[in-house]
Amino acid sequence: MLTLATGPGGLICAFRFGGERPVRLNWDDIQAPAPVAPGQFLWIHLKIADSRIHDWLERVDDIPPAARAFLAGHDSRPRLHITDQGVYGLLVDLKMDAGDADNEKGVLHFYMDGSRLITVRRGALRSTDSLRRLVEEGADFDCTPALLARLLQCLSEGFADKLETLTDDVDDIEASVLSDRKETDRSALSAVRRQLAEFRRHIHPERNILGRLCTLGHDWANARALDQLAQVIDGLHSLGANIDALYERAKLLQEEVASQMAEEMNRNLVVLSVLTALLMPGTLLSGIFGMNMEDVPGLRTPGAFWYVLALMAMLGAGMLALLKKLKLW
Asked: Residue 316 falls within a domain, yes or no?
């Protein structure tokens, strides 16, 4: 058995279930675990950035080599692998503190069998933090699939909270668009659509692959836990539908903003065209009388300048009347 320093920073928390209430374990309990009694199992939550966690994963001989390599890997797309020994896969979750909206998603690798659930992450995630708090408050589970179902529920709740925030943003933008459009509406909608597109890219494949968990045939996956998994996965399907609906709503609002901008531009072009038409006769007349030739009419006539100005005004008024008659303005 591998011996490492006590309490590496990569061990976030560990609990043993199956008693009156969950029992917190330390690193020594993980390195040299006592035999797991019937009805008991472990949850081990790790941070893979610690090299000692890598060493521990390489030496745990009762986990399939492919699963150990997967837990320490850098995959970023949702996936699920079911073997005779257990289940391992990857979930996309929201980070705890994401300052950048384009970088708020993290990944969680997990391995589950009848005696333990091992979760591995790089950055702090909302789902595992919520689950840890629930366990510390005394939440108990009767098997590893039930624990995984609660983890998935925490994940779904995190995305639902984020979706509610985006819905509020879209509501505010919609009110602005329908009343007095602001210059920030278009960029704000683009940011919302970008986040929703990211959610769709991960939630849809995640909910599809997790559906396979409901068909686990292992003896440690009892019917009650599989029902819980099915209910949580149904919730993910509902979440995916809500994301699609909000994405389409944001898309329609963005098209409305584009339509308003095009309409405003058209109005401006009409005004410019009318002004051009009104000034065109005067411009033509001033160009003619501005020729540097000796025989230009009125060159030496007293008051000719005012006659030309009056003629230009009359031509402008006539052009305006013509535009009104043609209903072009």
From this structure: no
Query: Taking a C-beta distance cutoff of 8 angstroms, is the pair 27, 11 a contact?
Result: yes
Name the 3-class secondary structure at 38: coil
Rama region for 87: left / alpha / beta (φ>0; ψ in -120 to 50; rest): beta
Backbone angles phi, psi at 153, to 5 degrees: -65, -40
Q: Determine how β-strand 41-47 pairs with β-strand 116-121.
A: parallel
Measure the CA–CA gap between 264 and 279, rounded to whole angstroms. Answer: 23
Quote the domain boundaries for residue 7: 1-140
How confident is the model over 104-128, as pLDDT tens digits? 788 999 999 988 999 999 888 999 9
Q: Please report, for the domain that includes residue 3, its CATH number.
A: 3.30.460.20
CA distance 294 to 301: 13
Inter-CA distances, 179 with 12, 90, 175, 257, 314, Å: 50, 44, 6, 12, 41
What is the C-alpha end-to-end distance of the chain, expressed in Å? 89
Contact 329, 270 (CB under 8 A): yes
Q: Dihedral of CA 83/84/85/86: which sign? A: positive
Q: State whether residue 19 is helix, strand or coil.
A: coil
Give the number of residues written for the chain.
329
Q: List, for residues 24-65, the tens digit of each pLDDT value.
A: 998 888 876 666 777 889 999 999 888 888 888 888 888 899
Helix (H) or strand (E) holding 91: strand 87-94
What Å distances lie between residue 176 and 172, 179, 191, 303, CA to CA?
Answer: 6, 5, 16, 57
Q: What is the tally of structural domains in the chain?
A: 1
pTM of the predicted model as reported, rounded to 2 decimal places: 0.76
